[in-house]
Amino acid sequence: MKKILLMAVVMLASVASYAQQAVGTFTLQPKIGMNVASLTKSDGADPRIGLAAGVEAEYQATDIFSISAGLIYSMQGNKYEEKGITSTQKLDYINIPILANVYVTKGLAVKLGIQPAFNVNDKVKVSGGSTSITKDNTDAESFDFSIPVGLSYEYSNVVFDARYNFGVTKVWDGGDPMNSVFQITLGYKFAL
């Protein structure tokens, strides 16, 4: 038991040097990447691949803990293909991720938080053969909420981030689907 306790103390003491940024610093991180987005309870649907781009600010509170908040434009939705006809539900949001970041080793952070979002685009595109029709579909809720969970790795201020956003609110009033988004981004941290 004493050996286990001693090992735990040594491990916790060594964790103190894992953050890339100095304690008390603010950074700004422009980022760009892609989403693999779908809607839950949408049997037979394929994911929509889309852009994720924006900026996040981070405050390094301690050697192993930081808090970040951002604005991310996120292309979400899904698509169906049947008998040569493709129907794409385009749901684009401005996401506001607010995350707690715990550095578990040098440069590697585990992330967990909340993410309110606002719908800025709700369209359906139907295409088949040489015909394509796009129409506004105003049925989507204007507000969305999700729980982001992920990992990031930082090296020389370059940050690779992978997270999964679990949708908590329904996309449509009276419907069951919620957003389900896997997001990968690449960013660069600038000290402020």
Task: Lay out the secondary structure.
Blueprint lengths: L1 H14 L10 E14 L6 E15 L4 E18 L2 E11 L2 E8 L2 E21 L2 E6 L6 E13 L2 E13 L7 E11 L1 E2 L1
Antiparallel strand pairs: 1-2, 1-10, 1-11, 2-3, 3-4, 3-5, 4-6, 5-6, 6-7, 6-8, 8-9, 9-10
Radius of gyration: 20 Å
| Largest sheet entry | 11 strands, antiparallel
Globally, the shape reads: elongated
Which structural class do the helices and strands define? mainly beta
CATH topology: Porin
Beta-strand residue percentage? over 45%
CATH architecture: Beta Barrel
CATH class term: Mainly Beta
Nearest-integer average pLDDT: 89
Uncertain segments of ≥5 residues (pLDDT<50)? 8-19
Q: How many domain modules?
A: 1
Output the number of helix runs. Answer: 1
Distance between the ends: 45 Å
Query: What's the count of strands?
Result: 11
Describe this structure in words.
With 192 residues, this protein is mainly beta. It has a single domain (2-191), classed as Beta Barrel (Porin), CATH 2.40.160. It has one helix spanning 2-15, and strands at residues 26-39, 46-60, 65-82, 85-95, 98-105, 108-128, 131-136, 143-155, 158-170, 178-188, 190-191. Strands 1, 2, 3, 4, 5, 6, 7, 8, 9, 10 and 11 form an eleven-stranded antiparallel sheet that branches. It is elongated and about 55 Å long. Mean pLDDT is 89; it is low at 8-19.
